[in-house]
Each structure stands twice: as C-alpha cells, then as structure tokens.
C-alpha cells in the first residue's frame, strides 16, 4: 500500500515537471446533457494538471491545454468523460447521467445502512432539515404530511400532547402504533431530542419490518442520531423563541346571555328567607345563575344583577349593564413566549467519535399557569480500541416537568396523562375549554372570572345555585381550575446502549449490544376544598410508575462480493425483558385538613393499588440478501419468537419474509427521460403476541363495603388457548426517476392480511363478559402510497424542491370469530358506537340517523323537527386519502420551507359542536332566520328555524318552523347523524424563511450562521367540520369530547456553527 | 485472538438455543389479582349492586314519583336504549361463579369456609332471580337460559318472558328450601346470613312475581301466589329487606351523592306525587319530600320544558331518607300486604281485602316513621282512601305507588300492570312517542354484537322501542 502511493506521487511529479516545457493552445466547446440541454457549472480539467475551467450559463467553456493533453469533464449526477485533445480546437461534449452516482443510503432493519437500490421494500427516509423546518420539538408532530402512508393523529399543543402515529392505516383491529427505535434502542418518541436527530426512516410493511418481529406490526420508525465525523470538530448552537397563541375557536353567539329562557328573572324580596337589607333589591333583573347555558335574556345592556353581585366584594348588591363580551374565551388564553435551545459539541478522530448535546425547552402554555419544561442530555461515543474492535456508548437522558397540564375530554370528566392511569383528582377536570365550548354563559367577562376567590378563602363562580346559594353549581371559575386545582408531573427517561463491534475481516462483523430504556414517572393532582368537585371537600392523588425494557442482542454480519454477485447476510438473537410497576393512590371522601395535600389527609379509607407487569420475548433471526450485477436483488429472512405472555404450548412462532427487485433501467438504453427505474415486490409475515396476564382467569378487587372487602370477576374473559397472531403482507412497487433525477416517483401498493390477531373482542355482555380475548378472524388492509419528489426549478441561484406524499388505505373486516360479526371499538353519547363489522369498512359509526325520503330529503315531524332511526350505519372513519405537500425554495442564501398536509374523507363525531349548540353558545343558534326575524323568537311569532325538508307525509315541503331551543336541546342532542362530519381538511403546518450568512462574511472563527423566521400551525386552510374544530388535533381518531384549541406559534430561530 | 472470540460466540449462540427459549416459569402469573377468590368478598361485591337497582331513577321518573329539575330528559323519555349489560357482567356473572365454586368438587370445600355450600348456593340463586326478574320486568324478553355461559356462548338467544317467569318461580321455590343448618353465609351485607330472612325474602319476591301475572295468566299467578304464601312471606316491618348505605364516600346514598356531594340536585319529588299526597293529606309526605325555600311542599312540575324554576324552588327528597348512610327499601311488609289485599280482591285468596289493605297502610306509615293511631284512623277514613270494593284495585295500586316511593322500578312495573294511579304523560316527549314508556329498549350492543338473536326477538316480541308491552303487560 505504502509503496504504491510513493510510486504514484513520483509519476505525478514527473508528469507535472514535463508540462512546464510543453506548448499551450486554447480549446473551446459546449457541454450538453444527453437530452441536448446545456449544462452550466461543469468542471473541465486538464488531466494531471491543476488547470481547468467551468462551463458558463450556456454550457460553454474555454481552456488552454498543452499538447497531447486529455480533458476530463465532470459534473455531479453524470459520468465523467475523458477526451484526448489531439488536434481539435473545438470540443463539444455530451454527458451521460451516471446511475451509479445516485447511490442513496438508507437505514433499514437492525440499523443496517444499505444502498436504497438494493432494498426491495418501500422505505421512506427524511433528513433532519426537512423534519425540523419549523423547529417542532416533538418528532411525531413534525412527521405530519412528510411520509406517504404515515398519519399523524395530533393532539392540542395546549396540553403539550403527543400525537398517535399510524403507519399504513389500520394494522390491527384497535389501530396500532409503530415501534420507535433510536439507534437501535426501542423507546418512547417523547424521549427523543429533535436536535439529535440526523435522519428518520419509516419501515412501513411487514416485508421491511420482519426482522423486528412481533412489535413491528404497526410499522417501525428508525431514528438515527447525529454522530461526530472523523477529522471534524464542531460546536453547534440552535435556539428558537416563539410566541404561542390560540389557533382557532368556535364561532360563538353574542346576542343572548346565560339562562334557560329569554325572560328575565325578577328578584322578589321575601322577608322570611332574605336578609332585611336585601329589601332594596326588590324588582332587580336577575339571571338564572345556575344555568350553564346561554338561552337566556337578550343582551340589551339593561341593568341587571350578575352572579358576582350576590357574592362578597364591591360588586355585592350592584346592578351592572348586561353587555356582550365577544372575546371572553379568546381573552382567557395567554400568548406566552417559549424557548428551545440546544448546544452540541462533536469531535472525531481516526479512532474515536464523540458528540455530546444538551437541549433545554421551556414551553409556556396558552392556558394560564400551565407549562412544560424539558431537558435532554445525550452523549454518543465510539472508540476503536484496537484494530477491528470498536466500543460504543450511547446515553440519552430526558426529563420533562409538566405543571398544570390542562385536561381535555368532555365537561368535568377528568383528563388523562401519558400513562393512561389515574382518575380525575390526578388528571384534573376540564373546567376551561370544556366549559367555554359546552357549558357557559356567553356574556361573562374574563376580568370578572379572574377574581375567583373570596377574601375568606371560599370560591367564587359565575355558576351558582342562586342568590342564597352562592356555591359553585356545575362549574368553578376556570381560574379556580387553573390556579388552585393543580397538577404536576415529572417524567424522566434514560435510554441507550453499550455495544461492542468486532470486525473479523472486511466482510465479517459481530456486534454485541446491551440496551436499556428506563422510565420513572411521578404525578400528583390536587383538588382544593371548597371547589366544585370531590363534594367540595378537596382531594389529592398521586402516581409513581417505574418501567424498563432491556434488550440483549447479538448480530453476526457478513457482506462480500463474489464477482457480480453480492451477498449480505445477518444472523442474530435477542432477549427482551419488560417490567412495569406502578403505585397509585387517591383520597376518598375529601381532605380532613383543607390545604394538606397528602394521602394521610384522606377522610375515608384512601384508594390505593399497586400493579406489576412483566414479560419476556426471546428471539432468533437471520436474513440473506443476494444481488447480481447491482441490478437483480433477492432477500429472505426468518425469525422465531418465544413470548412469555402466550400459553406455554403456543408461545413459539416462526415467520418468514421474501422480497426481490430489478433495476430495469439498467437493461434499457440510456435516455434523457428515464434515468432510473426499479420494480420491487415482497411477501412477509409478522407474528404478534399480547400483554401479560391474559391467559388466566383472575379476580379483581373492588371498593370495600365498610370492613367487608369485595372481589369480582373480570369483565374481560382471558383465554388459555391463545395462539400468536400472524399478519401476512404483500407489497409491490415501482421507483422511477426522470430527467436526470429531477423528478422521482415511488409508488407502492400493499395488502395486509391480519389473521388470528389477539384482541379483547367485545361480545354480547349477556354472556357474562363484555370482552373476550380471542384470536380474531381476518382483517384486510389494502392501500397505495405515492411519493413524488421533484426539483421543478433548478437554476444557478434559485431552486425549488417539492415533495408530494399521497396515500390511501382501506381496511375491511373479512371475518371476526364464529357467530360474531361486530367488534365495537368505542362508544359515545346515547348509543353511538364505532365498530369493526364483518363485511364493512373498519371504523363504522352506528347511531341515530335522520330519516329521509327516497329523494334524500329529511322527513320532519309535526313540530318541524327531524325524525330519526336508531342503530343506523353512519359511515366509516377511514379517510379516502391523505397526504402532504412539502416545498423548499432556495434563492442564494435564502431558504423558505412551506409544509402542508391534508386528509380527504372519513367521518368524525364532534361532541363539542353538539354541546356548543345544545347550550346555546354557538353562533348558529342565534341571529336572524330567513324571514329576518330572530331565530330564538317563538315560531308562532315568525321566529324559529325552518328546516329544509319534507313534512311527515314524506312529500310536501316543510312549512313548520321548529322552535330553535327545542331543535338543539331536544332533537339534535345525540342525533348523531347531525354531528358526524367529514374529516377533510387542508392545513398549513409549517413555514420557515431562513437566511444563511455567506461564509465570506463570517471570518475564520464561525463556520455557519442561519437565521430564520418560523411559523407552526399558521393556518387551517380548509376544514369540513368547520366551527372552530381542528380535527388534526383531536383527542382521538374518531371523536373529541371537549377539545382544547390548537396552538399557533410564530418565532425566530438561530443556528450557529463554530 | 480471532479464533477465541469466534469460538466463544459460537459457544454462546449454541448455549442460547439449547437452554429452552420457551420456558418462562411463572412470569405470566399475575401478581396483581388473585386466581382463587374468596366467595364472601364476591358476594359483598354483588350485594353492592342491590341499592342502585332498587332506587333506579329512570323508572321512578316514568312513574312520576320524581321529576327532573334542570335537564328535563328522562321525564320526557329521552333515553330509548337503556343498558342492562352491567347486571350480566356484574352481579349475575359473579353469582353464577359463587354457585360454581360451591358446586365444583375441586373448589367447594375451600368455598365452604364462607358458609355451607348449600347456604351460599341458595343465597346466590335468590339474588340471581331478584336481578333477572328486575331485568325482564324492564326489558321483556331477555337472554336467560343461554346467558352467562361465557366462552360457551357469546351470543345468547332471548327467552320469552313467560318462560323466564316460569323458571323464576322454580328457582325461588327451590332456593328457599335449599338452605341447611350449616354455617351461615359470610359477606352478606344485606341480611347478615339470616336464613329465615332470606327465605321470607325469596317467598315475598315470588308472591309479588305471581301477582305480576294478574292480567296475562291469572290461573298460574293464583297458584304461585298461594304456594309462596304457604312457604312464608314477610310478616312485619322487621322483616323488610333494606340496603343500608354507609357514612363513607364509596358507599354513600345516591341522593346524598346527587344533592350534597356533587351539589347537582338533578331530581326532585314530582308535582304529580306531591299533589296526590297533599290531596290525601298523606302523613308520609313529610317523610318523603322536603319543603322548598319558601317553606312549602312544591313538586317539580313534571316533564315541563323549558324550566322556570331552580332546585331551591321545589321539593327535594326529604333529608331524613337521604343521609349519607340512609337505607333504601328492596322489599317491604307493606308491599307484601298490598299484594295480599289485591289477591284477595281478585278472589285468588280467601283473605279479607279491606283488612289487608288497611294493615298495609298501617305498615307503610310505620315504615316511613309517621305512624300514630289518630292520624292513621283519620287517613283511612277519608273518602278517597276508605276501602271500597268497587275501586279496590285502584286504591290498592295508589297506596302501593305511594309506599314504593324511591323503589322506582317496582313502582313503574306495578303502574304498568294495574294502570293506577292514572298518570298523564309528559307534554312533549323526546322519544318520538306520546305515551308513558312501557318498556326499555335493548342496549345498542344487542344490535351490534348479537344481531341474529336480536332480530329474532324483535320479530317475536315487537318493535324494540319504549312502547312494545312486555308479556305480563299485554
């Protein structure tokens, strides 16, 4: 090796020396592509010299050469060409695209980097720059619209929610989340520091995920974090500051105030029950303060007694004008400033790479007094100890502290947390938006609500029993909730791996890795004594959860070429162990000592429970991939799992995968049109198991009756004969690149057959059980995915790059279980269910439906109200298609990214809309009707609403006006049909405009500076639900019960490289 | 070096595959819940459902004993489909298991620690019959003979109510004679394992079930009635079956919860009820209703919408019956006497209808704590109350409706059977109908999870709405 180098250098020097004596001449010419278009920027060098030139805008060049010289033309994406000058003076060159230069490396199963050319399945990768366009700190949020076949079911930013991710639609009866692997360690997406992410790759179908086994049925998201590069030292700083604000609110009416009737109540002094001093109040106009609805008197400015005028303070006894406060809800939400700062250091040499990184994020919530603070520390180290042996240590620590995370969910029913545990004391009640959008009095002023506590410590509310009963009736002031009924959470995770890699030879490697993901979670919740809930006696609850996952794995890898044949083979094993333990307790019956928030303060025997879950999966697996001539590829894999959670005789399961592809463009003559073409196809199976303790009947323990303990049978019947589930999948696709790779198209179709899937099947509860754990029949998911990447404009200065993702996925229940045809996925108000039903699309709504005649017109009753039928199918939640549209514009040092995503079709049930109207808060419940009369006036006086439909005979057009309040309260409440909407929306998710300061201006000390303006969630361009509901941030995939509003952020981001 | 590593890896791999991958020991045995239950605790868990069943509010609203205060919904028959699933997956399924654990050879001796096998089985059978009659009275034909079979039948067919009643008579009869002299039942928070009381409970249930057949099958009703009487029914208020709540949040009286704990005050005594008792100058009114803020008895206007009153303006249930630890009635001496009075009036027995009727009123006044002889005499002397054989059924039924206050399910069933008192339906029902409901529609799960059987029962019994009458109501 050393000798060869010396020889080369000597020859080069000799050659250089000779050229000094040669005679120069000038060559000109033009460089074009094979399709005839001119190529600017092509480098033209004289072989063996430092001389050269670059083609100009017309593709022309001019270079002086010595006699007998050779010219080398090189340009990225094209094969180099060498031309002997000979006697020519003009040399025109046509460059041919070089397919081999297109090498695109992607990360595949087991973290193995492969040339995308050799992959037989659909893998879509996204680099950090696209992911972090607007610096969303949550990796899952940032995925929206960016990968074909990936759906982000978002959560409101007001509760710092983490979305659910669906890969390729419905993979399991109950949905199915993907497995997140960070540098090979399975963990939670929330533990991932966005600033550490180098790239993210989504393995969609079983053919791609087969090696991950039973947890990968919902797809795998592989995240590779940044590592130091050999020979480079870097210090990077990345900081953003954003201003956050409420994004969207329903449209409210501002014509009528609180109450159940438009008639004012008049205070009548009664000496028997009222204090003598109240005699002067006689005749005062009053509201029905106990009403948490707005069907009350017209807001006419007349002097009235507000709820506050019956509570202690300067307002007591005062008459105030009855005026509208149209912005009351909007004014409640704050416009906080949030920060996200990262600093990272990296350095690499021949034998080591180290990167350490620290991120601090302060998210202040739009709900007052709520915040989330996050710290991430990570270190990624690699040491080559001696030749062939490398040791790696990767450690990622994250700590999240949540303060008063607001609840969503219906009305006062409590919120939730990431563990899914705990009741309303722990998680809080939704007394903010759940009140504003569902149960409120429209005229209230936010300034008044801020005064939520009396001097003596008792609580004030807008919603009191009456003048003599000033206790909160159905609602506290939202500020009581925010400041006194508090909760706090600490979520700490540490995950990473310790690994050894040994390279026996260039083609044989062994990796032994131990991985752990450990979590500690603590939460406590408080309900103040004297507030509405917990009988006004206060409450306290806390939760401690510890969980860990260990993975011990070994992998032997072989990679060698035999002439035109390439062989890649892996064999390995894994032992996975999961442990989860939690301890949860809550006071019962109130606090003995108000303000003493401790379980010891429980008035009655506190509820206390501890739970442990344990499981192990042992696995052996291997795969072989063969390539011929870098053109034909064939791959097969086998994996066997043994799960502790399955019955003893059935706990071993083996599953294979097989796939192949042909780069057919290599077989075609070169053309300027098609630069790359590949077809691929695969078949795979993936086995699945179930959570622990589902094979044996055990009894639950319930609330004791005095000193008598209670026990009960579970309502879910375990199954000692469970088999592993097995999903089989076929996929095929074609990858094409056109016009010298300016346009790329990836198209995939797939079908998943989920067989014997283990589910808690809902059975007729008259059997004694409401659910039975069974191996369910067959669910078939079919779909297609298209990813188009194009560079429509590629100039010297200006470039436009775009990605269009588009996918469609439908799931059908082919067969459930003998005698059973319906799997209920969920239920809502008064008989609304969502189902997986044999022969139907997954996610079918069933509920009450407006009765229609053959022409499709609603049939109305004698009062002009809708008629309806129960238990009718109301459409499926599955979207028709969805996708994203990403754009990146570059002009010189300027860069702009604009990311949009969309969903078309699929149904959604909005509880908020239903109650917003029921309670007379919604704009649609007020205003004028088509006669120009107030809708809320009596129908007999020309008010009311004339519903477009036909009379009871089913034919004659309706002429009966419905009373507005009766329409919304009596008839439309729980008339599910009316509140089920198309999910269709188009959302502008992210916009960033950045400027990189030219290197010339930076001097030596600074490598790079980039400043950008960012916007997250700037605009919901279109939404079929309308009315201020943002379906892309809903509580669940099919309904919301009391939706916190979306958060819109604008800010600035600074990136500094040293 | 290279060879050593390679060898140790191969060795480790071999070891890994040889040590059985599939043996996980007891890892999948739950440490969180017991595999072997204590039947006493299971029984207590079942009995915790009795209070909620007997005080069920929807039928009390249908029977117009109560009215909605703010959300005028169930008093306008809003909810068509009412859920009975909790009874099957809760008390019924657990009772079935108590019987199984006391029957199977492998478990019966362990189970006997909590009472003799016979006593536990008898108790469980009586309670099963109680819950199943409760369900069939409300929904009509229900899954019965094929129900509660777990994995053996996930879609139980519906039995006719007639077949169910026939079996209930048999079950109650057999159960009350099954008790033995062995250890009394532990965990019995209802009757403290008192065998004599359980027998009277069973026979009284059977007596009232027999009377339920007065319209549809008087002959059968008469025979069962006589048999029940012979076996021995409740004979004094001391025998009343009551469910006593406790002074603790997890076991508190439902009205205490609604009025005090949550401060909602959703239900008040209805105007129909208050007006009827006021008209009769009924001494029980003060024991049942509370005066409003103005010191008057004012029932909440029944089924009227929109509302023009608040909770303070109307009569809530009396504080004396809704303390955190108040008791609720499951079956009372007055009920049993009224049943006997009606049987006598129907000619089923040779008893004296008038005497039984007056004894029932006396028992009821005593039960409600308002008895004194002078008031009682004055009360029964009133023209509307004094026994008249021509109006006997109506008078007995009105007295029953009064004494069954806050035993809504029973009050609604007896109103359906007798048609008394004559009630006026709510003005604007929300269910699309005009009349007072005569049954509850099946929960949505029947049409989604048990469709074939559901379609069959609808074809047999009639439309699944609130107006198809159950068998004994035809």
Helix-strand blueprint:
The complex is a heterodimer of chains A (1058) and B (474).
Chain A: H1 2-19, E1 24-33, E2 43-46, E3 52-54, E4 60-66, E5 70-74, E6 81-84, E7 93-95, E8 105-108, E9 112-115, E10 123-127, H2 128-131, H3 139-142, E11 150-153, E12 164-167, E13 179-182, E14 185-186, E15 197-203, H4 206-209, E16 220-225, E17 233-246, E18 265-266, E19 285-286, E20 303-304, E21 320-321, H5 328-332, E22 337-348, E23 352-364, E24 371-386, E25 389-403, H6 424-427, H7 433-436, H8 446-450, E26 464-466, E27 469-472, H9 478-483, E28 487-505, E29 508-527, E30 539-562, E31 565-591, E32 602-628, E33 632-643, E34 652-662, E35 674-688, E36 700-705, E37 708-712, E38 716-717, E39 725-738, E40 743-762, E41 771-794, E42 798-815, E43 822-828, E44 832-837, E45 844-850, E46 868-876, E47 881-891, E48 894-904, E49 907-910, H10 911-918, H11 964-971, H12 976-979, E50 980-982, E51 985-996, E52 1008-1023, E53 1039-1040, E54 1047-1057
Parallel strand pairs in A: 1-7, 13-16, 38-41, 49-53
Antiparallel strand pairs in A: 1-4, 2-3, 2-5, 5-6, 8-9, 10-15, 11-12, 13-14, 15-16, 17-22, 17-54, 18-19, 20-21, 22-23, 23-24, 24-25, 25-28, 26-27, 28-29, 29-30, 30-31, 31-32, 32-33, 33-34, 34-35, 35-39, 36-37, 39-40, 40-41, 41-42, 42-47, 43-44, 44-45, 45-46, 47-48, 48-51, 49-50, 51-52, 52-54
Chain B: H1 2-18, H2 39-47, H3 50-54, H4 57-62, E1 66-68, H5 85-101, H6 105-111, H7 117-139, E2 142-143, E3 158-159, H8 161-176, H9 195-211, H10 218-231, E4 241-244, H11 254-261, E5 267-269, H12 271-279, H13 285-288, E6 327-331, H14 333-345, H15 353-367, H16 373-381, H17 392-403, H18 408-418, H19 444-449, H20 451-461
Antiparallel strand pairs in B: 1-5, 2-3, 4-6
